[in-house]
Structure formats: structure tokens, C-alpha cells
Design goal:
Elements (H helix, E strand, L loop, with lengths): L1 H14 L4 H21 L15 H31 L4 H8 L1 H20 L1 H19 L8 H26 L8 H30 L2 E4 L2 E4 L1 H22 L17 H15 L1
Antiparallel strand pairs: 1-2
Helix pairs in contact: 1-2, 1-8, 3-4, 3-6, 3-7, 3-8, 3-9, 5-6, 5-7, 6-7, 6-9, 8-9
């Protein structure tokens, strides 16, 4: 069922959503997954423990991941096409312009790790997703005359925003999951991530195809930047939906994961104090 649904999502933009094969595989995938859900909820030892979805914090975090990945991966996918097919950059220049996003993720991860115990997952995830939305909207203003260095700065901060979504979401999702159920929960969590990514790529591809990635200018076919701009606007809207869902999370539920780890200096100071007291 999952394979059929993923194929329909992946091939729908190119084959057409009204294609009999896409409709058949899409509906067949949904039906098979529905049958699987009904069966798994009735057996005592399910292959996929769907009862974990009853955990409010895990359910909310997984939904945030599902919708958020649609926005995040959809944006990165659209950016790659925008640089080469829209702006006409070479593969090297496109890669160099996208690369700052990875640096932003690494830099932002250090910040989000320190902010998580103080701010909590709810506001951290919502802020990160709002950042993704703002930067995706900023990409709608990029044109042929825009400096690539400005675009690279946007990519860097997009990575920073993304880092404030990934780690907090995963930490919060498993905060109230027992150690015995972690493996089963990981299956659902990663499935949501993969399907959300595929959905985002399919949706943004559909938007670009509907607008048209090329148009005729003075008798010559040229790139239509409006198609990519509409895709970025769509990704921004999806990110805002995910941010709204993130605001439903209760930080108190994720309290077990919000403990601060003492620094090496504080650990050394505490050890010295204990030795002095013992002496």
C-alpha cells in the first residue's frame, strides 16, 4: 500500500493526476493502508504498533514532521531546479549556491541544542518553521538580476531555520515513548518523514507544472520564474500550517528531554566542592 501511494505521489506530476494508472495506484494504496490499519489495531502483537499514535506528544510531533518535511524538502527541491532551470546556473554554481544551507544546518544545530532546554520544543519548532516560511517567501523575490551572494545568505539562514525543526521534533516525539516501544515508534516517525518529503516534492512539482516552467518571450522559449515563485509561496504556506500544529504541543509533556547537561567547568567546580566538603 505504501509503495503504491509513494509511486502515485512521485509520478503524479509527470504522468498527470488524472492518469488511470495514478488514480488506480493512489486509491489502491490508500485502500491497502486502510486495511492494514484496521488489521493492525485488532491483533495483540501488531507488526506496526499504530496504538502509539494515541500518545498525544508523539502524534503531534509526527504530524509536525510530516507537514514540515513537505515544506522543507519541497523547498530544497524547488531551489535546485530554480538555480539551474530557472536562473540558468551551471551545476557547479548551483551547488555552490545551495551549499550554504548545509553550513546553516550545522551552525543552527548548535544553537537549537542550547535553546531547547530553555525555550522548549513548541516555540522552537514554530519559530523554525516560520523562518522557513519567511525565507521561502523571500525566494519569490529572486530574479535574474539578484546577486547570488544574497541568495546564498538566504540559503544559509534557511539551513539555520531547518535545524530548529529537525532536532527538537525528534527529541519531543520520543520524550514520552518507553524504551521498549522506541523501535516501533521510530518506524512510524521515519515513515511520516519519507511520505511527507515525497508529498512536498509532488505538490510543488504540480504547482510548477500548472504554471509552466517555460513561456514564450518574443518568439523564443525562456524560463518562467513565476512557476518557481509560486512553488516557493506554496512551500511557505505549508510551513505555516506545520508551525500552527507545532503550537499545539505542550512543553510540559516534553519535560524529560529538556534537562540541561552541565558544562565541563561546572562539573569540575562541583567535583572540587564535593572533595572540599569531604576533606
Amino acid at each position: 500500500g505504501l509503495a503504491s501511494l509513494m509511486y502515485a505521489l512521485s509520478e503524479g506530476p509527470s504522468r498527470g493526476w488524472t492518469s488511470p494508472a495514478i488514480i488506480g495506484l493512489g486509491l489502491g494504496g490508500v485502500a491497502l493502508l486502510g486495511a492494514m490499519v484496521r488489521y493492525e489495531l485488532r491483533v495483540s502483537q501488531p507488526m506496526i504498533d499504530l496504538r502509539l499514535v494515541g500518545n498525544k506528544l508523539f502524534r503531534s510531533s509526527t504530524i509536525v514532521l510530516f507537514i514540515g518535511m513537505a515544506a522543507l524538502l519541497g523547498t530544497l527541491y524547488a531551489v535546485a531546479l530554480f538555480f539551474q532551470d530557472g536562473l540558468g546556473l551551471s551545476a557547479l554554481n548551483a551547488g555552490l549556491s545551495t551549499f550554504p544551507e548545509a553550513l546553516g544546518v550545522m551552525f543552527g544545530a548548535q544553537i537549537s541544542t542550547r535553546l531547547y532546554p530553555v525555550v522548549g520544543p513548541r516555540r522552537l519548532m514554530a519559530a523554525g518553521l516560520c523562518g522557513v516560511a519567511v525565507l521561502a517567501l523571500a525566494m519569490t523575490l529572486v530574479g535574474f538580476a539578484t546577486s547570488l551572494w544574497l541568495v546564498r545568505v538566504l540559503m544559509f539562514f534557511l539551513g539555520v531555520s531547518i535545524s530548529h525543526v529537525f532536532s527538537p521534533t525528534q527529541a519531543a516525539a520520543f520524550a514520552t515513548i518507553s524504551q521498549a516501544a522506541t523501535g516501533r515508534a521510530s518506524t512510524l516517525f521515519n515513515t511520516a518523514r519519507q511520505v511527507g518529503s515525497a508529498l512536498g516534492v509532488a505538490l510543488l512539482t504540480t504547482v510548477m507544472s500548472a504554471v509552466g516552467v517555460t513561456h514564450v518571450v518574443r518568439g523564443h522559449r525562456a524560463a518562467n520564474l513565476a512557476a518557481f515563485h509560486w512553488a516557493f509561496a506554496t512551500a511557505a504556506a505549508i510551513a505555516l500550517v506545520a508551525a500552527r500544529v507545532a503550537l499545539t504541543i505542550n512543553d510540559a509533556d516534553a519535560a524529560p528531554t529538556m534537562t540541561r547537561h552541565p558544562s565541563k567547568k561546572s562539573q569540575a567546580r562541583q567535583a572540587a566542592t564535593e572533595l572540599a566538603a569531604a576533606g
